[in-house]
Amino acid sequence: MAEQPTFEDVVAAAQRIEAHIRHTPVTTSKSIDDTVDGRVFLKCENLQRTGAFKFRGASNAIWLLSDTECARGVATHSSGNHGAALALAARTRDMDATIVMPAVSVRSKIEAVEAYGGNIRFCGPTMADREAMLEEVLAETGAVPVHPYDDARIVAGQGTAALELTEEIDHLDVIVVPVGGGGLLAGTSLVAERYGIAVYGSEPAQANDAKQSLDAGRRIATTPDTIADGLRATIGVLNFEVIRNRVRDILTVSEDEIIAAMRFVWQRVKIVVEPSAAVPVAALMRYRELFNEQRVGVVLTGGNLDLDALPWQD
Q1: Rounded to whole angstroms, how far apart are CA atoms 182 and 240?
Q2: Least CB-packed of 97, 177, 182, 254 within 10 Å?
Q3: What's the burial of 208, exposed, middle or buried (CB within 10 Å: 0-12/13-18/19+)?
Q4: Domain 55-145 bears CATH identifier 3.40.50.880
Q5: Mode of pairing for the β-strands spanning 174-178 and 198-204
Q6: Residue ranges of the domains in the chain?
Q7: Cβ–Cβ contacts within 10 Å for residue 199, how many?
Q8: Which residues contact 226 (CB under 8 A, 6 or more apart)?
Q9: How many CA atoms within 13 Å lie on the side-chain side of 29?
């Protein structure tokens, strides 16, 4: 695969991982439609294997490895969803997977990585902590690194969610997805560009590096502090180059808006989503005038969270 991913890479990834992933359903909600005065189609990646879209990219990366690389095992850093995805994907090829995780990660996500057979190495809370620990692991094990988002293989795999959505739902006007490291947004933008669909990213205002970067025309790192733990990453170098001329805008939302949207989806759509997955729904609600009379696709990215620590509980 070329260093810069293409639409053709997304199509190839879809064929490569078809036997391993779940083709997730698309659902609708009259309550959301009425809120934005449009037609909204929700791609339920919270029902993907491992509970998040990340299994798509991880599977594509794993199944592109040679047998020699498989023997070395893989390693990555993750707040949870990518780690669980890579651990399970590695199992499909009988490989070892080492996952560097912040010790403050959501307990249910740590348990998921363990359940899928990942070897966890805990680190401090910052991205620098993650990267430093991963370098130690790579030096010790000789494992093949699989970056959680800034990797053409990952981008192509994540783009298959949008590819499925466009194949199932005709005449979409716009797709909205959350953005942390940007793998999903980059992959989605490749698909949307091919079919003439507008794309918006959405992110917490307290982790708005993608918005700042897009506005400035260069990558800007911030210090994220958000309930949406899956979005506490700086936009990737590769991913920024993919999205900078393909994404219409990045829509930011507050922590309260994320929590309200998450609760709305639980109550009205009757499905479990984590805070990161609620971010694009919050964006629809805050910027509803952008989506009036539009056919809107939204990727609900995951449903992994601690049920004993829901954000609306005391």
Answers
A1: 7
A2: 254
A3: buried
A4: no
A5: parallel
A6: 7-52+151-300, 55-145
A7: 23
A8: 204, 206, 207, 232, 255, 258, 275
A9: 19
7-52+151-300 and 55-145 agree in CATH topology: yes
Instruction: Give 123's Cβ-side CA count (13 Å radius).
Output: 24
The one-letter code for the residue type at 7 is F
Which amino acid, residue 310? Answer: L
Give the CATH architecture of domain 7-52+151-300.
Answer: 3-Layer(aba) Sandwich (3.40)
Q: pLDDT digit of tens for each residue in the chain (314 aa)?
A: 447 899 999 999 999 999 999 999 999 999 999 999 999 999 999 999 999 999 999 999 999 999 999 999 999 999 888 999 999 999 999 999 999 999 998 888 899 999 999 999 999 988 889 999 999 999 999 999 999 999 999 999 999 999 999 999 999 999 999 999 999 999 999 999 999 999 999 999 999 999 999 999 999 988 888 999 889 889 999 999 999 999 999 999 999 999 999 999 999 999 999 999 999 999 999 999 999 999 999 999 999 988 888 888 75
* CA distance linking residue 252 with residue 100, whole number of Å: 29
Helices (H), the chain: 7-17, 30-36, 54-63, 67-72, 81-91, 107-115, 127-141, 152-168, 183-195, 209-216, 237-243, 255-264, 275-286
